[in-house]
Specification:
alpha/beta, 8-stranded mixed beta sheet, 23 helices, elongated, P-loop_NTPase, cytoplasm, GTPase activity, Dynamin_GTPase, nucleotide-binding
């Protein structure tokens, strides 16, 4: 037995599925899920079987459906069933499907009356169905029996809500005709999730079991508790018919005879019964397909536009296409490298630095750091300056710092710049190669082209690296050729070199032997190569005194163990007063580290301890020599700061011009000309690329065919005709009479205030006593 209404949809759905199946993107026509909801023993399972056209669900009294049954109908050439819990086992006998459903239910819930929310998934393959999902749920019950939990009603309602709350769900609210419709749990649950009634159809069962003299005429005419989609009456097989294995075809014929012969229903027999319910469901499926096609078309057109360019590039059947592809690939490669270096990429990397950002980091962080590493040790530098001064003076005692000592030290430090500059070029070279490699992705499709391109570009990078190192070496030689002491930033420019006063150290010190305050008084001290001055505060506006450093010596002072400060003193070797009537200055620091630092600074200024044991350098004992060393040292620092500033500025410019820009220009203007003679062999695709090209062209062709099929399908699906039911006609009495047919009585026009109310999209169901006037007796 098949579903004729469903079979009418099969060619349409199959044509769409076939058109879309060749597209790599997995398109599916997600048809609505039909969920059957109703009270226990209301005939839900029978309605479901009639829709499928097969007798396969368990039967019995009480609660029979104790687990959700998710029934997926799949179009296939043969008829069989398959369960998700036993894949590969095909059931061709539907009686065995019924037994397996019962066994699987009892496996999880036992033989008692308990329920479970774990669904049973059944797939039925048939040439007479479309891809659709039907759900049979446990019937709503009020009282727990047997081993059922006390909250069985709450569990079942919660389970039903999980399924009917989805917008893609069509609700069949099943209610027996021999019960009070106002107490229908199915309608109440449906209203909770579908207040506008857009996806709820009322199904009235057991019409043949109503007491004599009673009927459901008002309900089926949608005059009592009307629904937006109305009610449909069905007559299912009785338990006697099922036990007697009455065929569904015969049951449907008996159902039709019942409606035609019943005096209350014969005028609407054409819109009652299981076939009409199938018609309504199929109309919803057709509407869904029609509403879905525009979205499919937009998605397919978007994919087609995205593939057009790539498919055009993959047409390599003639030499012209190969030449064009080679040109496009190299131009794209050059553009990608330019974007990476200039920072104009379409996709910004938010994980790490790359390309031009890495080069910028090398320019402004790594280069200054490498230049700083070549600065000499302070003691070693002072020793070298001392030796240079004394060797230049020879047997003479020099009164002024010699220029030759300054130049000798400066040239030596300039020559040390070769190593950090070469290391800087190596870092740029490495980063440039890394950046170029990031642009080879498009060339991966052609292994020989990538290999040859990589070889040519890498060779060019190393060639430019050698040129850059030679140019930097020339820059260093240029700096060594002439020491420009007239540079405007040089500290000795337009000044007498002997009169240069350089600050060696600044800081707070406490004078402990001057003043009446206990513990002494703090002053801001400034130490230069010529003097020691102190001020009231660090603003250096109120100078207290300036002490020349001539004939001064340094002496340690040991205080008691309770003292928290560290002391030293300064005195004059000729026993003169150093400050007012004081023969010495007693100074204090807060820590031993600070004390040692001040001592080193005083050594640099030519103030030495009264005992020089442990210094190991006899030159520290000559104050005049130390002042000359200090002067030259500061001149060297000043000049080398100019050199470092120059190289920090010139090195990035040099590598950008000689290396980065030259490589970019080579790729843009020369690379293609060197690759072009080898194009016949370079454009051989990799196996993966060949497969990818076939897939792209196949998908491009399939998309065009699918769009053509969808266009034909769109034209072949007209708007659905109005269903022969007054419940879905417009509320206007004029349109109702216009669409009405003989034997199909229209609804009387409600009062004006009810018209306005019924026009609201929020209306779902209305009381017959409030919204419906008494129906005239007799058919129209």
């Amino acid at each position: 037995m098949s579903n004729p209404g469903m079979e009418a949809l099969i060619p349409l759905v199959n044509s769409l599925q076939d058109a879309l199946s060749d597209v790599c993107y997995n398109y599916e026509l997600h048809l609505p899920q039909i969920v059957v909801v109703g009270a226990q023993s209301s005939g839900k399972s029978s309605v479901l079987e009639n829709l499928v056209g097969r007798d396969f669900l368990p039967r019995g009294t009480g609660i029979v459906t104790r687990r959700p049954l998710i029934l997926r109908l799949l179009h296939a050439d043969t008829v069989y069933g398959e369960f998700h819990h036993c894949k590969g086992n095909k059931f061709t006998d539907f009686n065995k499907i019924r037994e397996e459903i019962k066994a699987e239910t009892e496996r999880l819930t036992g033989r008692n009356k308990d329920i479970s929310s774990v669904p049973i998934n059944l797939l039925i393959y048939s040439p007479h169905v479309v891809n659709l999902t039907l759900v049979d749920l446990p019937g709503i019950t009020k009282v727990s029996v047997g081993d059922q939990p006390a909250d069985i009603e709450y569990q079942i309602r919660k389970l039903i809500m999980q399924y009917i709350c989805h917008e893609n769900c069509l609700i069949l609210a099943v209610t027996p005709a021999n019960t009070d419709l106002t107490n229908s749990d199915a309608l109440k649950l449906a209203k909770d999730v579908d207040p506008q009634g857009l996806r709820t159809i009322g199904v009235i069962t057991k019409l043949d079991l109503m007491d004599k003299g009673t009927d459901a005429k008002e309900i089926l005419e949608n005059r009592f508790l009307p629904l937006r989609l109305g009610y449909i009456g069905v007559v299912n097989r009785s338990q006697k018919d099922i036990d007697g294995q009455k065929d569904i075809r015969a049951a449907l014929q008996a159902e039709n005879n019942f409606f035609l012969s019943h005096p209350a229903y014969k005028h609407m027999a054409h819109r009652m019964g299981t076939p009409y319910l199938q018609k309504i469901l199929n109309q919803h499926l057709s509407n869904h397909i029609r509403d879905t096609l525009p979205g499919f078309r937009r998605d397919l057109e978007s994919q087609l536009r995205a593939l057009n360019k790539e498919a055009e590039e993959f047409r390599l059947d003639d030499p012209t296409s190969r030449n064009k592809t080679l040109t496009l690939l190299i131009h794209h490669f050059a553009d990608e490298l330019k974007k990476l270096i200039d920072g104009t990429c379409d996709n910004v990397d938010t994980v790490c630095l790359s390309g031009g950002a890495r080069l910028n980091q090398i320019f402004h962080l790594r280069l200054p750091n490498e230049l700083t590493k070549v600065q000499p040790d302070e003691i070693k530098l002072r020793r070298e300056i001392s030796y240079a001064i004394r060797n230049i003076h020879g047997v003479r005692t020099g009164l002024f710092p010699p220029d030759m000592a300054f130049e000798a030290i400066v040239k030596k430090q300039i020559s040390w710049l070769k190593e950090p500059c070469n290391k800087f070029i190596d870092m740029v070279n490495e980063e440039l190669i890394t950046t170029v490699n990031q642009c080879f992705d498009k060339l991966t499709c052609f292994p020989k082209l990538r290999e040859e391109t990589e070889k040519l570009v890498t060779t060019k990078i190393y060639e430019q690296e050698r040129k850059c190192k030679d140019l930097v070496l020339q820059l260093i030689e240029i700096q060594l050729a002439y020491i420009n002491t007239n540079h405007e930033d040089f500290v000795g420019f337009s000044k007498n070199i002997v009169s240069i006063v350089n600050v060696i150290r600044k800081g707070w010190l406490t004078m402990s032997n001057i003043g009446l305050m206990k513990g002494g008084k703090e002053y801001w001290f400034i130490l230069t190569a010529e003097s020691l001055s102190w001020f009231k505060d660090e603003e250096e506006k109120e100078k207290q005194y300036m002490l020349p450093l001539d004939n001064l010596k340094l002496k340690d002072i040991v205080k008691g163990f309770k003292s928290s400060r560290f002391y030293f003193s300064i005195y004059n070797t000729e026993l003169r007063n150093v400050y007012k009537d004081q023969k010495w200055l007693e100074l204090a620091c807060c820590s031993q580290e600070e004390l040692d630092s001040w001592k080193v600074s005083l050594f640099r200024a030519g103030v030495f301890p009264d005992k020089v044991d442990g210094l190991g350098n006899e030159e520290f004992t000559d104050p005049l020599l130390e002042r000359q060393v200090e002067t030259i040292r500061h001149l060297v620092d000043s000049y080398m700061s100019i050199i470092h500033k120059t190289f920090r500025d010139q090195m990035p410019k040099t590598v950008m011009h000689v290396m980065v820009n030259s490589v970019k220009e080579f790729i843009r203007s020369e690379l293609l000309s060197q690759l072009y003679p080898l194009r016949e062999t370079l454009m051989d695709e990799s196996p993966d690329q060949q497969q990818h090209r076939v897939e792209v062209l196949r998908k491009h062709r399939a998309l065009k065919e699918a769009l053509a099929v969808i266009e034909q399908v769109s034209l072949s699906i007209p708007l659905p005709p109005p269903v022969d039911s007054p419940r879905i006609q417009p509320s206007s009495s004029q349109e109702t009479s216009k669409n009405g047919r003989p034997g199909h009585p229209p609804l009387p026009s409600p009062p004006e205030h009810h018209k306005r109310h019924n026009a609201s999209p929020d209306s779902f169901m209305h009381s017959s006593t409030q919204h419906i006037r008494p129906r005239p007796s007799g058919p129209r």
